[in-house]
Amino acid sequence: MKNQKFAFFVIFVLVVFSLNIFAETKLTTIGRYTFARVKGKIPTQEVMKMLVDRYSTDIKYGFDQAGYGDLYLPFLDQLKTATLEERSLPVGDKLMWMLFRSQGKVKVARDIEWAGKAPLDVFVFNVKRDSKNYEFVMPRPCGNIALRSITEAELPKLEASCAISVTPAKVNLKDPVTVDLSGSQNAKSMELAVMGPDGAKAATHTFTPESPKWQTSFDKPGNYTFKAQAISEDGTTSTNPCEAKVYVNAPPTCQLKTSCLPCKNFVGKPVTMDASGSTDPDGNVVKADFAITDAAGNPVDKFMDSEAPLTWDQVFSKPGSYAVTVVVTDDFGAVSEPCRVVLDVTQKRLFFLVEGGPGLLHGTYTGMLWARLGLLYKIVPDTLDLILAVGPGIPLQGEPWKTFVMGNVLLNVHAGPAFLAGGLGFSTKEQETRKDGIDLVFQVGVDLFKSGSSSVGSIFGELRAPVLTENRSFDEHHKLLLGFRYIF
Q: Are the C-beta atoms of residues 360 and 344 closer than 8 Å to each other?
């Protein structure tokens, strides 16, 4: 029975004790259980900071007991430079916990209400950690430390800062330009305006931190200015300069001239293509690319010239209509629009000729010298010619021989440098007892040299046989000639 009464007593004491632990503490006076004794009636900020520094070990112990050990270091660090605000807590104001000293030991009182008769004079300062603000108070009559409240710290407004990079600084028309605003800070978005060479707005673009890059290009030459600004979360724009420039290179302009237009009788002759008059408004023309195509558009030849005066001499081996195109390049790699000239190249068909050499006359084969002047017409160039020639024959013996005249009308067929000719001729009488008459003429020869297509030197042999009549026998009227011919 006695044991039962003792057990009920213990339970009663524990209940009362537990109620006291969780009950709110009403503080009516201050200064009885001081954490650190303050000398003098009016302690200063410097004195309070000195006490905290002196009792730092006890403060750490108290913070650990209060369950706020992670605030110990921020508390000490921030208190060194903090300004302690003097304030009076009204009666009824509450504190979350307070460090005090009882019987020499550091203790923690929780859920404290100031229940004094007058407001409590305190020093107040804040400790910031992570995103929270911890308000501490230190009653001025003593060195106790109390945590009054915990609030969300007001984050400082971060000013947006803009940073721009535009590459490359010089481009050709339609080449890509990369704009990079990834260096901007504290920005919710970034706005870009591009001003063209005429000062008008050429383009705009909006960036985000997730997409800070943009590519663009331009189809007009000149200076382009990129102006950007960063916009913060609260909508304010950056004030720092944020500008870049890009120069868009102007392409060159080509000019093409030819030494003949039309190119009459120019087969085999050099034709000069001249791009030296090409210009570049912001640099120099450094290269010309020539190309020639025929009437069907098939490539004939091409040439690149990178040295002044940017010309090309071309020899056309065949007549026809040829398109000559040139494109010029400047010193930054920009390429002009093509220039085009159509050449109608014709071949000379009518030529003069002179020919002559030694020969043998009929019968006794008396020696002779001969010469002829004439015309050559190319019926089919390099294949078939018509030759008209006339000139004297001079026997190397006297009587009964006399100077006579020979003439030819021949068709000349080419097979490369070799040729074979045949046709009709006429010969006046070589002796007074002979008669004029018609000859059959045969030639075989070879071209020795050519100078372009207008000058040709050839050697040939000629057989002249009379058309058989009663008074002109083959034995007495045929001739053998060795000749050199020059066509010009």
A: no
Checking if the pLDDT of 63 tops 50, the result is yes
Between the alpha carbon of residue 105 and those of residues 24, 28, 71, 99, 121, the distances in Å are 22, 21, 21, 10, 25
Range of weakest confidence among 69-73, 313-317, 429-433: 429-433
Instruction: List all residues 6 or more positions away from 376 whose beta carbon is below 8 Å from its beta carbon.
Output: 350, 351, 352, 353, 385, 386, 387, 388, 412, 487
Region 205-218: what's the mean pLDDT? 96
Question: What are the pLDDT digits (tens) for 373-424?
Answer: 999 999 998 899 999 999 999 999 988 899 999 999 999 999 999 999 999 9
Nearest of 287, 292, 297 to residue 273 by alpha carbon = 292
More confident residue, 380 or 38: 380
- CATH number for the region 257-345 comes to 2.60.40.10
State whether residue 132 is helix, strand or coil.
strand
Angle, alpha carbons 5-11-15 (nearest 5°): 145
Maximum distance among all alpha carbons in the chain? Answer: 193
Average per-residue pLDDT for the chain: 89
Half-sphere exposure of 304 (CA within 13 A, CB side): 4
Q: Which two tokens stand for residue 119?
A: 């407001």
CA distance 353 to 338: 44
Tell me, which fold does domain 350-487 have in CATH?
Porin (2.40.160)
What phi, psi does 292 have (nearest 5°)?
Answer: -125, 135
pLDDT tens digits, 285-296: 999 999 999 999
The pTM of this model reads 0.56
CB 128 within 8 A of CB 148: no
Question: Can 165-249 and 257-345 be said to share one CATH topology?
Answer: yes
Please enumerate in sequence order all residues whose Cβ is within 8 A of that of 223, keeping only pairs 6 or more positions apart, or say none: 197, 245, 246, 247, 248
Give the type of residue at 29: T
Q: Establish how many alpha carbons lie within 13 A of residue 39's alpha carbon, considering only the half-sphere containing its beta carbon.
A: 4
Partners of 409 in beta bridges: 388, 424
Report whether 425 contacts 439 (CB < 8 A): yes
Fold annotation for 165-249 = Immunoglobulin-like (2.60.40)
User: Which of these, 30, 62, 36, lies nearest to 50 by C-alpha position?
Assistant: 36
Closest by CA position to 138, among listed 35, 56, 236, 207: 35
Per-residue pLDDT averaged across 468-475, rounded?
Answer: 77
CA dist 48 and 409 (Å) reads: 137
Domain boundaries, the chain: 21-152, 165-249, 257-345, 350-487
Residue 38 pLDDT class (50, 70, 90 cuts): low
